[in-house]
Every structure is written in structure tokens, then in C-alpha cells.
Amino acid sequence: MLGRKVPAVTFRTRVRDEAVGGSNPYRWQDVTSDDYFVGKRVVLFSLPGAFTPTCSTYQLPDFEKLTPEFRALGIDAIYCISVNDAFVMNAWGKSQGLENVKLIPDGSGEFTRKMGMLVAKDNLGFGMRSWRYAAVINNGVVEQWFEEEGYSDNCDSDPYGISSPQNILAALKSQKLAA
Ligand code: BEZ
């Protein structure tokens, strides 16, 4: 995975635009992989589903809280991607009161599939979702990779630790010390 360029994908996002009018003024906006990744050093983390317990209680809020520490270590943005559509991802972001982490809707799973991280979660009635992983991506190229162990379809457990913000921060800090 290291040194690989992220897949070129167009994400179908929904953005607020008062010009649309009415009580729900949102419109579609296409955002490409280049828009998200070119010219930036970012942390991308991917999880099995919006609103799921570990993701909502620990992973996303902890990345949100720890964003200043990532910025101090040369990270320009933090992205959370999930195989969920833009409506679900927007509702999740709103419920979490996000100000720092940007959510990326990979509704069709195209990015996740091309990253080699798509797994079946039919055992939970989820269909195809993302295995949990995170990466430091520098100008669109994978610089560091943090994948939970046991990549598999219909996994009984939901491993979480390697892709936690605490673990990634520890890695970034130790690299800074060694540099
Ligand atoms: C969780 O984040 O807790 C979770 C993720 C996928 C399936 C079930 C739970």
C-alpha cells in the first residue's frame, strides 16, 4: 500500500446552498480524489458505518478532538470515509457537531473497493462496507498505512486500535523524534 496513489474517484456529495431555496436547501456537488488529496498531507480513516457505536463513540470524536495535535505534526486535514451515501454522512456529521474532520461519502464503495478494503458485512445486514484502516496520504500518495488485523468478510469482531487517532499520533510523534 505504501507509495501507492489513491484511486481517482468522483464522490457525490451534498452541500448546503441557500440559492436552492425551500426548507432543505442542498444540492449535489461532485468532489474528486484530486480535490481532496492533491497538494495536502492528510490523514484518511475509513470505518464500517456511520452511526455505529465504536465509530460514533470513539473513533470519529477522538479524531475531531485530537485534530490540533495532528495539525502540529504537519497534517493539513483529516478525512473520514465510509461506504455510506451523502445524506447519511451529512446527518452523522451534524449529529457529531463536527468542525474539524471532513466526512467523505463513498456511497457506491468505489474508492474503498479500489483501495482493496471492501469487505462483506452481510452477517450484520450491512452489505459491502470498508474494513477499518487509516493512512497518512501525502499529495495523493500513501505515506503511512494503519490497517486493523484480520481483514475478512463477515468478521465476527470489529477490531479497533491500529487505526485509532492515538496510535497514529504516536507514530507521527516518534517519527518526528527520530528525524
Ligand atoms: C461499531 O463501530 O461499533 C460497529 C461497526 C460495525 C458493525 C458493528 C458495530
Distance between the termini: 23 Å
Enumerate the distinct ligands.
benzoic acid
Decide which structural class fits the backbone.
alpha/beta
* Major sheet strand order: 5-4-3-8-9
On the 0 to 100 scale, the average pLDDT is 97
Continuous helix count: 5
Order of helices and strands: EEHEHEHEHEEEEH
- What is the number of domains? 1
**Which CATH first-tier class would you pick?**
Alpha Beta
Regions with little confidence, pLDDT below 50 for 5+ residues:
none
CATH architecture: 3-Layer(aba) Sandwich
**Radius of gyration based on Cα positions:** 16 Å
Strand content: 25-35%
Shape estimate = globular
Query: The CATH topology is what?
Result: Glutaredoxin
Quantity of strands, as a count: 9
Q: Into which percent range does the helicity of residues fall?
A: 25-40%
Report on this model:
It is a single chain. The protein has 179 residues and is an alpha/beta fold. It has one domain (10-178): Glutaredoxin (3-Layer(aba) Sandwich). It has 5 helices and 9 strands; from the N terminus they run ββαβαβαβαββββα. The protein has helices at 33-37, 53-72, 86-96, 110-114, 165-178; strands spanning 10-16, 26-32, 41-47, 77-82, 102-105, 118-120, 128-130, 133-138, 141-147. Strands 5-4-3-8-9 form a 5-stranded mixed sheet, covered by helices on one side. A hairpin with a 7-residue loop joins strand 6 and strand 7 (128-130). Helix 2 runs parallel beside helix 5. The protein is globular, with a radius of gyration of 16 Å.
Task: Write the SSE topology.
Layout (H helix, E strand, L loop, with lengths): L9 E7 L9 E7 H5 L3 E7 L5 H20 L4 E6 L3 H11 L5 E4 L4 H5 L3 E3 L7 E3 L2 E6 L2 E7 L17 H14 L1
Parallel strand pairs: 3-4, 4-5
Antiparallel strand pairs: 1-2, 3-8, 6-7, 8-9
Helix pairs in contact: 2-5
The protein binds benzoic acid.
